[in-house]
Amino acid sequence: MPTATDPATLTDVQRQIVDLAREFAQTRIAPHAAEWDRTAHYPRDVIDELGRLGFLGMLAPEDYDGQGLDALTYLLALEEIAAADASVAVTMAIQNAIPTTMLTRHGTPAQKKRWLRPMARGELVAGFALSEPDAGSDAASLRSQAVRDGDGWVLNGAKAWATNGGTADLMMVMVRSDTPERRRGAKGISTFIVPTSTAGYRAGKPEDKMGLRASNTTAVTLDDLRLPGDALLGEEGMGFVYALEGLDAGRLGIAIQAVGIARRALELSISYCAERRQFGMALRDFQAVQFKLADMATRVAAARALAHQVAARKDRGESTTQHAAMAKLFASETAMWVTTQAVQLFGGYGYMRDYPVEKLFRDAKVTEIYEGTSEIQRIVIARGLAAGS
Ligand code: CAA
User: Fold this and answer.
1) Kind of pairing, strands 152-163 and 145-149?
2) Alpha-carbon distance 126 to 119, whole Å?
3) Contact 111, 233 (CB under 8 A)
4) Count of C-beta atoms within a 10 Å radius of residue 27
5) Which one in 4, 197, 254, 356 has a CA-CA gap of 20 to 30 Å to 303?
6) Are 18 and 26 in contact (CB under 8 A)?
7) Residue 8's pLDDT band (cuts 50, 70, 90)
């Protein structure tokens, strides 16, 4: 497939994993994606199947039943899933990147055994709750509060736009653990491991979203939610740093999610322009259309190459903060541009729900917003430049 990663560049293991991901995506996801989008159906059974195949534990260490794979292999698989349905891809992306990174780096052996192992096996779906109604881009201004209670903690507050807020088994929740008398800014935030079955955890109704309609997004209320002492992840006051570390990994996944969406729009456009005839010839015989398809293909390839380059940095153990922001910025703006061109090429059909490109256009938009808006990515990149990295 000329629009996807060139198989000649892959190792045997990578090719097997990509083939498995593509086969699963084409048989278990793609045929249903339009219906799930229409009915806002969250396909937990399909997510569980993905988990049983190991796709929810690709980056988790083998010691904890994960696949222990490199970031590039993970991106290759995630692109296949995203090309079939971006909603399924976001659950895979978050689980592999954010809670897995947080637990692997900062969990105690007991926490890893209890939470990371079942996550890696695909038995638990995990999410991440950072944003609040008044703390989106300025995430460190969050106000939800944890107060010590004997050996444990009591959490109160309100989270917003949590992916899988109503469907996850486990959430990594960022709340303040400093006191109102002694606020410590970003260093007053801690991360708690919160099973969603805990009394006091309340997910709101699923948000009625423009796109990504088969993924569950909710507000979450923390209402006198009591947790034992061992629910605190790592060091108290380091939760914001852990969240940003997790987001470095998360943003790379969103970059490739955007590549998957854009690639699908490109593939559909190529087929449509071969079939659709106007003024006595196929659309693809018009040079203006050829130029558009050429630009779409070039941008998709460039976005993928940038994301793969960041994966290579990650696999070498180098910092990816600035580079993951670049990959997400470029890929998400590529997805929005490419899907806009696809709708234009499909013309009147492109605007109709019966044709698949308008879903891709709607799905693409959120990649410019979540896990940090394009403006936040530019801030992160510019700060990296100022720091000389
Ligand atoms: N890794 C580790 N540490 C980091 C870091 C990183 N990538 N970036 C910053 N830090 C550290 C800083 O060094 C600093 O620590 P020191 O004081 O010891 O130096 C601390 O974290 C605070 O950093 P900043 O001072 O830079 O914090 P800030 O308030 O200026 O915010 C920001 C920086 C980049 C703007 C950040 O707030 C941000 O990324 N905002 C966007 C939030 C976001 O992406 N939200 C997505 C929510 S999740 C979602 O979308 C849905 C879902 O379900 C996944």
Assistant:
1) antiparallel
2) 7
3) yes
4) 10
5) 356
6) no
7) confident
User: pTM here?
Assistant: 0.97
Q: How far is CA 97 from CA 93, 302, 326, in A?
A: 6, 22, 17
Calculate mean pLDDT across residues 195-203.
98
Q: Report the chain's mean pLDDT, rounded to a whole number.
A: 97
Q: Which two tokens stand for residue 352?
A: 């109709």
Task: Give pLDDT, residue 3.
Answer: 86
Q: What is the pLDDT of residue 1?
A: 57
Task: Tell me how far the alpha carbon of residue 100 lies from the centroid of ligand 1, in angstroms.
Answer: 18
The pLDDT assigned to 171 comes to 98
CB 349 within 8 A of CB 355: yes
Contact of 217 with 229, CB cutoff 8 Å: no
Instruction: Please tell me the number of Cα atoms within 13 Å of 303 on its side-chain side.
Output: 32
Q: Does the Cβ of 141 fall within 6 Å of ligand 1?
A: no
Helices 71-84 and 12-24, packing angle to 10 deg: 20
3-state secondary structure 310-369: HHHHHHCCCCCHHHHHHHHHHHHHHHHHHHHHHHHHHHHHHHCCCCCHHHHHHHHHHHCC
Position 201, amino acid: Y
Catalytic residue, chosen from 80, 267, 368, 371, is 371
pLDDT tens by residue, 239-250:
999 999 999 999
pLDDT digits 0-9 by tens, 162-194 = 999 999 999 999 999 999 899 999 999 999 999
Question: What spacing in Å lies between the alpha carbon of 328 and ligand 1's midpoint?
Answer: 15
Give the residue, 96 or 180, on which the prediction is more confident.
96
